[in-house]
Write a sequence for this structure.
């Protein structure tokens, strides 16, 4: 059926506006969504810029890694902090843009929306990291640990920054942190390459676990801050 | 599968209005269908929430017919009295009149309310293939009527 006919049909079957719709949805007890549906629904609210930026960073890491074969690990390591910055800035978009109070009065609580977005972006980034770890070669477990440290550290730092610095300045600060961590990782490869050895895998693992713990604590802080907003 | 409830509210309401031609009744039945949908937890997980909503709405409309047998119900399509209807739209209206009640309902659900094929097949209790065949034959009928009407219009213009 062509579009013109569809349009005409819609006009023909046009019904008068329902008068009680708003009142009905205000009063009705809406059924709770299960976690899967909630995550799936939130996927469509993540901006396309987040996906595009992640794809660009991934593409740059792959292309640069292919051009400078011996520097493949170095290139990937330099890109990961930016992936974390992009992810965090997307997860806390409503806080950055001052929409958090408004969103708290919406159907889904802001807390669950922020958590859902963090989970989605986190899973997407971890998948990208796994692929990059495979591209980087070497022992997969070790490579994953090396890549996780700058990623998680930037994510942790970014969470603190967006909590303490309000508005767009928080995002600029996160970008700055991303550049700093990226530079630090390059510096570590050039000056302290001995830390990337199998005998230190245990320490890398411990560092990953510690930063994960810090991220969880920081996530709790962020949520507590939202609760304070409600009381205010 | 989760559905956009507010958007579906308008569509189910349109369907009820089309069947009953009464705004208040159509809205009452739409709300009743949604309340039953909310009560039946787990329907979301069956993957057929739309078929459920339309089935409840249809059954409630049928109950309403039975309760109010002599309910004033013209065969006119909604909005027919509006002067603003364009010529093409008039031809389409006439073509729709030639269809059976069931065929008109099928056109409304598939092309106006945009109910997915799987949900619609579930609603009618037929296979997707049978629904596809039925939809195709209704469309052919509709297009044939439209082309006949257009030719008649042109012939009438030539005679003038």
């Amino acid at each position: 059926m062509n579009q013109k006919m569809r349009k005409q049909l819609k006009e023909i079957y046009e019904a008068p506006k329902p008068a009680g719709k708003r009142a009905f949805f205000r009063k009705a007890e809406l059924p709770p969504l299960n976690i899967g549906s909630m995550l799936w629904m939130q996927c469509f609210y993540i901006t396309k810029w987040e996906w595009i930026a992640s794809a660009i960073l991934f593409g740059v890491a792959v292309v640069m890694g292919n051009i400078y074969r011996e520097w493949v690990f170095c290139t990937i390591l330099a890109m990961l902090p930016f992936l974390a910055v992009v992810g965090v800035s997307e997860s806390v978009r409503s806080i950055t843009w001052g929409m958090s109070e408004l969103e708290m009065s919406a159907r889904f609580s802001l807390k669950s929306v922020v958590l859902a977005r963090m989970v989605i972006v986190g899973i997407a980034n971890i998948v990208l990291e796994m692929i990059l770890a495979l591209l980087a070669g070497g022992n997969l477990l070790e490579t994953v640990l090396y890549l996780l440290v700058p990623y998680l550290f930037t994510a942790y730092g970014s969470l603190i920054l967006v909590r303490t610095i309000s508005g767009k300045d928080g995002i600029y600060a996160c970008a700055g942190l991303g550049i700093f961590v990226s530079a630090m990782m390059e510096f570590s490869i050039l000056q302290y390459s001995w830390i990337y050895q199998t005998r230190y895998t245990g320490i890398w693992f411990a560092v990953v676990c510690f930063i994960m713990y810090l991220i969880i604590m920081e996530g709790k802080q962020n949520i507590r801050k939202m609760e304070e907003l409600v009381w205010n | 599968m989760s559905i956009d409830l507010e958007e579906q509210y308008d569509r189910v309401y349109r369907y009820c209005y089309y069947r009953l031609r009464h705004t208040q009744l159509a809205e009452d039945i739409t709300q009743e269908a949604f309340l039953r949908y909310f009560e039946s937890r787990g329907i979301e997980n069956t993957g057929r929430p739309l078929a459920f909503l339309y089935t409840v709405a249809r059954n409630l409309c049928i109950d309403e017919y039975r309760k109010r047998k002599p309910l004033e119900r013209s065969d006119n399509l909604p909005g027919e009295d509006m002067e603003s209807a364009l010529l093409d739209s008039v031809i389409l209206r006439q073509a729709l009149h030639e269809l059976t009640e069931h065929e008109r309902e099928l056109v409304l659900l598939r092309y106006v309310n945009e109910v997915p094929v799987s949900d619609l097949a579930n609603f009618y209790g037929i296979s997707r293939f049978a629904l596809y065949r039925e939809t195709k034959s209704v469309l052919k009928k509709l297009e044939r009527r439209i082309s006949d009407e257009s030719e008649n219009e042109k012939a009438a213009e030539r005679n003038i």
Observations:
- The longest helix of chain B spans residues 128-159.
- The CA atoms of residues 86 and 92 of chain B lie 10 Å apart.
- DSSP finds eight helices and no strands in chain B.
- Chain B touches chain A through 35 residues (CB under 8 Å).
